[in-house]
Amino acid sequence: MGGNNTEPFGRSSPPTSSSPFRSPQPLPPTTAADTQASVYSSSSSSSVSLASPSSVLPYVFLFIFAACVLIGFVVVVKMLGIVRRQASIGGSPSTVLSEALRVFRPAVPASRNYSSAKEMTVREALNSALDEEMSADPKVFLMGEEVGEYQGAYKISKGLLEKYGPDRVLDTPITEAGFTGVAVGAAFQSLKPVVEFMTFNFSMQAIDHIINSAAKSNYMSAGQFNVPIVFRGPNGAAAGVGAQHSQCYASWFASCPGLKVLMPYSSEDARGLLKAAIRDPDPVVFLENELLYGESFPVSAEALDSSFCLPIGKAKIEKEGKDVTITAFSKIVGLALKAADILAKEGISAEVINLRSIRPLDKATINASVRKTNRLITVEEGFPQHGVGAEICTSVIEDSFGYLDAPVERVAGADVPMPYAANLERMAVPQVEDIVRAAKRACYRSSQHAVAA
Amino acid sequence: MAMAALLRRQPFWKPAVRLLSEKTVKAPGFGLLAPCFREHAMGRRPSPAFLWPRRFESTVSQEHLQFPDDDDNHRDLDFPGGKVAFTDKLSFLSGSAEARIPCYRVLDDSGHPLDHSGFSLQVKEELAVKIYERMVTLQMMDVIFYEAQRQGRLSFYLTTMGEEAINIASAAALKDEDVVLPQYREPGILLWRGFTLQEFANQLFGNEADYGKGRQMPIHYGSNKHNYFTVSSPIATQLPQAVGVAYALKMEKKDACAVTYMGDGGTSEGDFHASLNFAAVTESPVIFICRNNGWAISTHINEQFRSDGVAVKGRAYGIRSIRVDGNDALAVYDAVHHAREISVKEQVPILIEALTYRIGHHSTSDDSTKYRPVDEINYWKNSRNPVSRLRRWVERNGWWCNEAETRLRTNIRKQLLEVIGEAEKLKKPPMAELFADVYDTPSSNLVEQQRQLAETVRIHSGCYPPDVPV
């Protein structure tokens, strides 16, 4: 429990090291395309091995020298071009340097860039969805802190500034309340803003504009002023970022009429739901997860099409089963699937529902599943009181009470502000074991002593 | 040495720049300067290698990393925010300027045009009379509707008394395409743009003809066909929204600007500061009009801020500002007219502070005699009233008289009583409107709820008020 060697979340990338401050976090270099960020960390040097027989040594040295002269010449020529461009737009030396070094990295255009044709990270999925929607509709524009020059605090908007220019990718001053209000006004008039919050924890500084200005305006104005806006950004716990960077806001926003709340899990979810959100004429809160950004998922050919769109308000049954229903959303879907595998070995067939849409909640799918399995576990990362699980539980009791063979259980985060220490953090967030235990309890398969665990 | 000293100053053909721009390097004649003079001309100390052939441009942008030695050649230095002159005196800038920002006015308190007025616009009889008539209408509207609330016929009302000039004169200076985002004390803009008294009354009574479908409290008017955004209660939220609207107008390349209003109290909100900052940074065509009326409910402006009013704050954000006599309709008209021209032509924000006095209570939920002297209220009502001031000017020009006044007031009073009667008689919005407009298309749960409610009302019709349609 104390060591860092166990990775309960099964991420394909190691956790980002981060400070509790709001500096953008450096990326773990997962693919060649992402090593651009490592410019800010210690520079990587290329090593040259010199194991060779002594007779050939002088010629090897000569060859290396000539190669260095040639490379140096190329660098100087490129520097002129890059630096001249940077100087003319007032770039500082560090950006000049990173720009120059970019020559030696694989080109990273705003278009899709994934290792194999059929797999995509969530980050790439979001980037491609943004790119396609901005390209299809000139009214769509992106604004937020660090979305432009920095390519996005989590590199979601990589390449977009270069492609669409500063009119459509706006780096904002540090005022969530300010830029959210500005975006709502732009949406009132004619544009379709996509507002990025560096994390949804900071959306609280703007929550008046999200609720009172965006969510309620269509209703208050009786349809005269609608707000086709998308608020997106990472939500929920990351790794070691402490209380003010780890809260899950799903239930906060989902309780407000006038908003739609979407939470993708896989890359296909991310692409389809973001496109649907941008095209929707109502305000949509799009809650992503920082730890999922680097995860790769297979994507179908249909999902890669630029007109691909997922319906809002429909959940997806990730895994069919017949003994117990497990509802989950965002990162927890991964844990629920792992739990389902473990349960399968013990003879319990669990049905895992990926909610995708928290508001409107797909109560039909949930209830149909419960009527089939007769048992329900709701799993979420956020605080338990007034959470999503509470809403699902009530819905099932209202509609399918007679079908329940066991009390509904909700597995949620601990009712404490998120601690920082890794061992404490691990205990504050649901793990695979918690889901397995809860499912067994619902199937009356647990021992007496484990009930209290 | 003398030559070097001469050249240390910025050359006349080049404005001060932070970094050497491409344009400057390529300016005609620049390359002809001998390398030694060129270094000086750029405002930098020459490097040791100035006699060598022209250096690569790549080092130009890194120049500002080379900090000069402690010599007298440089009294200023590039910081990321630009060049700043050094001083060797430690002194704190005073919190307020020596003199307060002066206030622009055209007419004096008794309606005489000032001798050396800078007023240049032609306000002909037709426009002047229209402005005056609308101000009177607004004044009377407030009196009658306020009375209706006191009689229990309305739940709530909020008057604009004392601020009629700001309302009507600013609206007159704008064009219909300009998008207005009000706080809540600006119904005069709607009145000017053609909102009828009946339409006002419908919103107040929340009946089926209300454009807001009975969704909002009284005085929360809104009309997209008049480019007037629905009033929203939280203070100052309309300010950043106005910047967003202005940004959208800029992207659409429309010949229009966004205009937004706030009170003195609204300038304390975070949204005020964020929106001014944003407007300046995004260079959006938005006009911020602050009605500094001295009171934010019971909070006097001495307790609201300690700056020289609001106009001084514009400069802090890099925005052109003006202070104007808000009770002088012509001054307001002039200022807003020119502000609009500048804003649209140069695509910049403008801040206008209009000094005035809130003669009425904050709203019908307030009794301002509890926190301010009645004498003060009466003084402003009788001696400094904007409506009477403009009246004197209009009469002096021979465009108005007592008979016209009586005729107008009787007419408006009659109309107001009629519209109130009509609005009261109309039915309330149907129950189906309860669920509409939450989303663009209702979600399935709302459709279901609506169906259930309709069913319940049908079955238990005796339990529901009969005059509310389904």
UniProtKB/TrEMBL annotation, chain A:
<protein>
    <submittedName>
        <fullName>Uncharacterized protein</fullName>
    </submittedName>
</protein>
From TrEMBL, chain B:
<protein>
    <submittedName>
        <fullName>Uncharacterized protein</fullName>
    </submittedName>
</protein>
